[in-house]
Specification:
The protein contains eleven helices and eleven strands. By secondary structure, the protein is an alpha+beta fold.
Length: 399
């Protein structure tokens, strides 16, 4: 008689289910990218309880959603939803309070705040935090079983079991992704430093020798001048290549991912609630512009953290058919004198002590405009606007 034969059927079924969940999650962990790992976990959860819709949310810094991967809604339907989840309402209850929710009627819960325009109707909810000890790795959201029955206690147990395995898969995938990023950034930095400290310095030395030849031998001055100009062009090409190595970090980064990375690097304090509302899709322009946008956000949010004494801040990006705009605002102390409550880029560049010259400079490189509105005790609003032709041109070139 085997050990399975000696066990009650219920125990055998439970062990079989746990084995199936474990094998499914192990298969998920082998995905190539973080996003694929998240999508597959959501898919496993959907299949496990027969849900119509499933989503996996990954918490970001400052109470934001770093990722929100959905299964069961077509991409074109997702595009029609007014905005992605930002971690409020019932989703926020699961994320912030780590509470398991099993609701037969979502709208009956007083913490429900409604769905954004374009969102498909949903009636029942099963939500489970993915956590180990005090660390939250994500949140599983399942709505509406395909058989139109309420979620059961057994469904909840299955999803809770999946969440335990999923925490390990998410942690492993995030560590692998972080290792890949660090390795890539270190290699780019090494190559850039080698080019700058080795090749460019050698070319500078050659240029100086050519200048000495030009001064000491007037007969060949024209030829030497031409060679010097060619050498300068080579140096500029190498400088541009080094810059592109740095900008390549943003090659496959959406604006939202770039901004969430900015937030993560700033270590937002617990006293500041920062939300990010930005498109998930490919950026509408080249990596160098994405880098500039993210660096501007970094400097503005850094100022908020260090000086504003704010409790709430937000980064909002809107992409229209012919425009791009990023607004960063806070409810902090403000800093503009009573006599002047708004600065344009021209005024900002000539104003000492605002710490915004880098922001204006980065915007102007890409023909952008920065406007700052503030008042003592009334918070601050920084708006970056990029011109129509820049956005349109980037789209035409497939950036």
């Amino acid at each position: 008689m085997t050990s399975n034969d000696s066990q009650p059927k219920e125990v055998t079924d439970i062990l079989s289910t746990l084995k199936m969940i474990a094998e499914a999650v192990i298969g998920v962990a082998g995905a190539d990218t973080l996003q694929q790992v998240f999508q597959q976990i959501a898919y496993v959860a959907q299949q496990l309880v027969g849900a119509r819709y499933a989503a996996l949310g990954i918490p970001g810094a400052g109470g934001t959603m770093a990722y929100f991967e959905v299964v069961g809604i077509a991409p074109d339907a997702i595009a029609r939803i007014a905005h992605p989840p930002i971690g409020r309402g019932l989703l926020g209850v699961i994320m912030h309070e780590r509470e398991i929710l099993r609701l037969e009627h979502i709208s009956d819960d007083p913490r429900h705040i409604g769905f954004p325009p374009g969102h498909p109707p949903m009636e029942r909810l099963l939500g489970v935090p993915i956590q180990v000890g005090g660390q939250l790795f994500g949140m599983l959201y399942l709505t509406d079983r395909r058989d139109d029955q309420p979620f059961t206690q057994e469904d909840q147990w299955l999803v809770e079991s999946l969440a335990g395995y999923a925490a390990l898969a998410i942690a492993g995938a995030q560590l692998q992704d972080q290792h890949r990023r660090v390795t890539l950034l270190e290699e780019r930095e090494r190559v850039g430093m080698d080019l700058h400290d080795g090749v460019i310095q050698s070319l500078y030395a050659i240029g100086m020798q050519l200048q000495l030849v030009r001064l000491s031998q007037p007969a060949v001055a024209d030829s030497v001048s031409q060679a010097t100009r060619s050498l300068d062009a080579v140096i500029e090409d190498i400088r541009r290549y080094i810059h592109n190595l740095n900008a390549a970090t943003y090659e496959r980064t959406s604006i939202r991912e770039g901004l969430l990375d900015v937030v993560a690097r700033l270590h937002i304090p617990a006293t500041l609630m920062l939300t990010v509302d930005a498109p998930h899709g490919p950026p509408p322009f080249s990596p160098s512009v994405v880098e500039a946008v993210c660096q501007i956000a970094y400097e503005v949010v850094s100022n908020i953290v260090r000086h504003a004494d704010a409790t709430h801040a937000s980064i909002t990006v809107t992409e229209g058919a012919s425009s791009f705009r990023m607004v960063v605002q806070d409810d902090g102390r403000g800093f503009v004198p009573d006599s002047l409550d708004e600065f344009s880029s021209d005024a900002l560049e000539d104003t000492v002590g605002l710490g915004l010259r880098n922001i204006v400079g980065r915007a102007r490189v890409h023909n952008g405009e920065v406007t700052v509105t503030s008042a003592p005790g009334g918070g601050t609003r920084v708006t970056l606007t990029l011109p129509t032709w820049l956005v349109s041109s980037a789209r035409l070139h497939g950036a």
